[in-house]
């Protein structure tokens, strides 16, 4: 059985060009990166397979190098059914479809605003998410990303949490990255995603209070009943 499988793999490898193999490998890599974002693991895997089946690069009018596999099939009557099936499959006319666009690696963040947006898309949970949210990106040198963690949250500097964040960033960018952490004073770490989220929430709250206080109907009620708005009860509409 093992020999039959080896013969089938050899025949299939001879029937597919190096360019096709490289393309399928690239589609597989990108698909593996996108699997965590698929609604279902099975559906994500099937989409990868469909991309491989549907997409065939322009060969410039040249045929695939199947001569070796075909001659072996004709020369030996003892060829295994598995091998013959592999050769027959490779000679089947390909499905004609529009080329599948292969996404390029995403550019690295270069500003605190971009870092805030990236952290929101990493899908981290628990303490790993807190580590990312309370860090500020200082710089990026090649694949090295330097982050400053506020001193108030220095206890989050754990190897396991740093590796979770690093793995999530590698999936997001589609390329290897390395993290370097430092601890900054709370007064200096003013552009972390956590600080930005808090500031935005406070601005929304204040805008909601202002809208209530300036509403004509609310003002008439206040004047008629000498009422006051309980600001703590005001909630912004999300």
UniProtKB/TrEMBL annotation:
It comes from the Bacteria. Pfam families: DNA_pol3_gamma3, DNA_pol3_tau_5. Residues 109-234 form the DNA polymerase III tau subunit domain. One of its GO terms (biological process) is DNA replication. InterPro entries: DNA_pol3_clamp-load_cplx_C, DNA_pol_III_gamma-3, DNA_pol_III_tau_dom-5, PolIII_tau_V_sf. GO terms for molecular function: DNA binding; DNA-directed DNA polymerase activity. Gene3D superfamilies: 1.20.272.10, DNA polymerase III, tau subunit, domain V (3.30.300.150). Residues 5-54 form the DNA polymerase III gamma subunit domain. This is DNA polymerase III subunit gamma/tau.
